Amino acid sequence: MYGDDLLPHLRSLWIAMERISGERMRAALPEWLKFYRPESFDLNKRYLLLGMSASTIERFLKRLRGEERAGKGLSATRSPSRYMKYKVPLSTLDQKITRPGHMQADTVAHCGTSLEGAFANSLTVTDVFSGWTENRAMFTKSAREVREKFVDIKRGLPFEMLAVNVDNGSEFLNNQVIEFMNTRGNGGTTVHFTRSRAYKKNDNCYVEQKNYTHVRELFGYDRVTQEESVFIMNDIYVNTWNPLQNFFIPSYGLKEKTRVGSRIVKKYDLPKFVTGCQGQHFRG
């Protein structure tokens, strides 16, 4: 029923959707096919694609995925002083999130194969409830630059920033960022600021996965050493990449989280578009 003549169209759509999973692609197809108009695409092929199940799409995608995978990037996280850790409380794993505004943040180093010298970094901030994600590039991870990016991201969010959880990197645990989180003058109420447990990536898992889909898949693992490139990266993030991911790529939402002994078992809802999930919690 589903022949190889559908493979080129699935490939084009899959690449345009940034190589998402079969289940997410199934949720996105009805919206994307409204604007898909290649020459060899007819109503019959459109009907077949719309009738595909997620598992069938996934079988096609297995043929499209290459065996080569980019190597992992280097970690540029530096530990802060013990005094700074005392100023920021640890987060809890079993907190129930019922509205957008509770966010996780992390940084990605565009350092190539060396951490020596100056290079660009990306700040990723993800909303736990909705999956809404914002990225900003900066040339270093100085406290001032990280604070400036938080201010910019908070100003542009379609909902109020209520809480932020970070790892134990010194780019977050410093006086400038802590002051931003605790000062009402930055617009709105104070932000509840917490940190993850050391060496427990699951504590910040929502943003960790976005580091790959929203940063590495876009800019790869190359080293960026020209400060002028940061302006181009931010133009792409703000005007193209983040709107694409937030408005046109469906994401999973956490449906249920249960503690089983020392483990957290998570069940996810069907993939949904971010803006269709939160209703009254969004501004405007």
Provide an overview of this structure.
The protein has a five-stranded mixed beta sheet, with helices on both faces. Strands 6-7 form a two-stranded antiparallel ribbon. The protein folds into two domains: 4-64, no CATH class; 82-281, Ribonuclease H-like superfamily/Ribonuclease H (Nucleotidyltransferase, domain 5), CATH 3.30.420. Residues 67-71 have low confidence and may be disordered. It has nine helices and seven strands. It has helices at residues 7-16, 22-32, 43-51, 54-64, 82-87, 143-156, 175-182, 205-219, 228-248; strands at 102-110, 120-127, 133-138, 163-166, 192-195, 254-260, 263-268. With 284 residues, the protein is of the alpha/beta class. It is 37% helix and 15% strand.
Biggest sheet descriptor: 5 strands, mixed
Would you list the SSEs in sequence order as H and E?
HHHHHEEEHEHEHHEE
Count of DSSP helices?
9
CATH architecture of the largest domain: 2-Layer Sandwich
* Structural domains: how many: 2
N- and C-termini, Cα separation: 45 Å
**Under the CATH scheme, which class of the largest domain?**
Alpha Beta
DSSP helix fraction: 25-40%
